[in-house]
Design brief:
This protein has 266 residues and is α/β, with parallel strands linked by helices. The chain is built from seven helices and eleven strands. It folds into two domains: 189 residues, Vaccinia Virus protein VP39 (Rossmann fold, 3-Layer(aba) Sandwich), CATH 3.40.50; 63 residues, Single Sheet (N-terminal domain of TfIIb).
Amino acid sequence: MSGIYDDPWAYALACSFRDVAAETDAILRWCAAHGTAVRTVLELAAGPGEHAREFARRGLAATALDLNPVMCAFAEREAKAAGVAVEVVRDDMTRFDLGRRFDLIVTMLDSTSHLMTLDAFVAHLRRAAAHLAPGGLYVIEMSHPRDRLTDEPSVGTAWTVEADGVRASVRWGEPGDRLDPVTQIADDHVTMTITEGGATRVIRDVVPYRFWTATELDAAVRLAGGLEAVVRLGDFDDAVPLDAPDAWRMITVLRGQGAGAQPGIG
């Protein structure tokens, strides 16, 4: 039985509620506000590469990196179908070495939850720092802390999407999926029911999720070196701080500190 990440089309459909164009607008606005002229962009743990494609539509040189070969193949096909140039690289977000720097790096959709240990997170941040051009920014989008630390989460775990005659109901996490208080890892049960042309299929999966707090992220940044936080927000709206009642994400904008290590050396 294949899982949700082995079916990129289904995964992209599940995430189609996102306004990728608006999110891209926000990220580029932050870059302008911090004096970063963006020509090159790297999306890490890119999956289907939606944001990389959107950056490419803006005329930027976009690269999408993911470890899953099925996702990489799908991202290449989607970029070609969209008529945009996206370089797709299969690699690990904790060990990649592309031999060049980027003005902007992004990791979206809480993909850092796949980093299960502090060592892995620090290794990832070091790789990101080594690939940032001077003055470049790294934008990390993570889930809001209240999703795991309170009884009133910021986002729902069940939603419905429709696109091109296809309807899908998604449930990402069940009430019994508890966060281990020692490891901060939960096994999220995922169920996606897709209906198309009168036919229905169901995808079931168990996705390990590592919850990271804001203070742990700060500690990982300090341990990694080469990066400093310049702003933290609770939405892609600049007017929503992390502690606002309507905050639903934890978005951290990091800036590279100086020239840093050359890719492949640090």
